[in-house]
Amino acid sequence: QVQLVESGGGWVQAGGSLRLSCAASGRTFNRNTMGWFRQAPEKEREFVAGISWHGWSSYANSVNDRFTISRDNAENTVALLMNNLKPEDTAVYYCAAKGDDDLMEYEYWGQGTQVTVSS
Predict the structure, then answer these.
(1) Is the Cβ–Cβ distance between 71 and 77 less than 8 Å?
(2) Which of 14, 54, 55, 63 is deepest in the core (most CB within 10 A)?
(3) Among candidate residues 38, 55, 57, 34, the one with its CA nearest the CA of residue 47
(4) Half-sphere exposure of 116 (CA within 13 A, CB side)
(5) CA–CA separation, 3 and 27 (whole Å)
């Protein structure tokens, strides 16, 4: 059974930093894109950042220059370093992985970790 387990969420004041981690088990994703999404209350889930198996990364405009995604293929993990956090970054953050990089959608999802940024 494939599992993605996030950790590192919490509460932080605006301007602070948090580092989210995601550990995958049940299969390896060292040849698959992994990413982070978030969902704020009463809003749609949105893409935050993604990273291909060879390290090419992409970001939502709202987090560009503040967030950094990274991965460790040997450990089957992906991380998201979030700097200069803003109240509008408050959301549940989800780790995700593609089962097949030829497809657009992410097949595997974690349960989410809450990030709360106070002003």
Answers:
(1) yes
(2) 63
(3) 38
(4) 5
(5) 9
CA 44 → CA 6, 19, 61, distances in Å? 20, 23, 16
Q: How many whole angstroms from its chain centre is CA 40? A: 14
Q: What residue type is assigned to position 119 of the chain? A: S
Return the amino acid letter for 61.
N
| Phi and psi, residue 91, nearest 5° | 180, 170
Q: Convert the pLDDT of each residue in 49-72 to its tens digit.
A: 999 999 999 999 999 999 999 999
Strand 113-118 versus strand 10-13 pairing type: parallel
Q: Determine the pLDDT at residue 32.
A: 95
DSSP assignment letter at 88 = G
